Fold each of these.
Amino acid sequence: DRDTDKKRIEELLEENMVLEIAQKQSMNESAHLGWELEQLSKSTDLADTRKSFVFELNECASSRILKLEKDNQSLQNTIQELRDASLTSRESSLKFVELQKENQQLSKKIEKLQNQIEKEKQSNQDLETLSEELIKDKEQLQVVMETLKADKDRQIKDLKQENDHL
């Protein structure tokens, strides 16, 4: 039983490490996306409206990322506590069962956090797409306005000529 418990604890520790690595990769990807979004906003010379919009997006994403990082740190601390507890509780199968349950709960929390990160990434992509569409619409409206202004100027000129002729 002890050997079996010992093997199971080692398996759980390995599983926890894999989950931690996956979580760190997700956090890195999220931070990288935030950085890319910031770089995009710096590299393009668009209207002030877009800059403030992107800035607000970055702030929102940053605050969510910070919250997720805090949750991640809390989970990592709990995982470390569980590792420490598992080393001292190898003799007790009851404690091992409790650790298994806690490990499962932590795994579920990690999965939820990863899902949240994916949703945030999708939300950021959706907002970026919306921002690009709004910029295109603005540019089209500017072209229409310029066309209307040119038509108006031409009509005024024609009317003045007609007035002079009359």
Note: DSSP finds three helices and no strands in the chain.
Amino acid sequence: EQSLQLLELGGSVEEDYIRIARGFEAMRQRCCRLEQDGRRAREQLSRVEAERAALEVKLKHARNQVEVEMKKRHRAEAELEKQERKLQLVFESLMREPWGSEALSREQCSILSALAGRRLGGTLAPGRRSSAVDESCQSLLSHSDISYDRTEDDV
């Protein structure tokens, strides 16, 4: 009786083993696909990290360049104000001297007065910016939009 049961089970056991073997093969193929996907993802990650590192270097250089240019601009504005103060003093000295108005022609006096009124009158205001640079709100790269945050490591 036991032998008969074993023979009956024997046929279904063999089919079960075949199903199990097919399941293992399907799982092995799936694991191979996942391994290939993982390899491609790691390659893509390394490419993106290299690109990110290159962009960080460019950003660092750009920040440094902006900082250098801002320092140059501030020095140039300070020099401009210094020269304008000297010019204003020369103009005032010329206009105060009794011989100054006699030595200068009427045309020269009017030119100096026009320059003094237009150029020198409003130039000594504190915090004045050079008009050579467009600082309107339409500017795409306003210095106020640039972040000088040095926390690159927080990412």
Note: DSSP finds three helices and no strands in the chain.
Amino acid sequence: KGELRIQSLTFDDAGMYQCIAENTHGIIYANAELKIVASPPTFELNPMKKKILAAKGGRVIIECKPKAAPKPKFSWSKGTELLVNGSRIRIWDDGSLEIVNITKLDEGRYTCFAENNRGKANSTGVLEMTEATRITLAPLNVDVTVGENATMQCIASHDPTLDLTFIWSLNGFVIDFEKEHEHYERNVMV
């Protein structure tokens, strides 16, 4: 394949590499520079969200994406409690924390710790639980004679601290009420 693999890179491997392809008709060259990157974890460019919202009974993924080379090892805490993988909590290989079946007890300060052979860093965010959004009245199947008007209803309950938006789609395509105002009309009742 003309492939060069270098395992367990060190700083001595950095430099300009040249591939030479040769046959009876001649020789061609291609060059590439290999840079070796090494840095302690830092959250300066990508800190954790300060406020994370999660729906009651739902699931949340809290991302932890520091810049680091080599890839860091991750650990998490809630307050002063060190978190470990369990039935509701999982720490992913990329550092993200997943919590399922969210309850009020899951609220609090979560800290991600990242460490490699160059150093360590951490970032913290606060998880808050909201009431889950639920469809309380779903649209019903409707038979309408061609040329007549049809009305479909959708009612939902939601956490009062959050905004709610209704999006309608037809056969998987979102309806643009501004472009199709002559055909579709949206009535929002509070």
Note: Residues 133-189 form one domain.
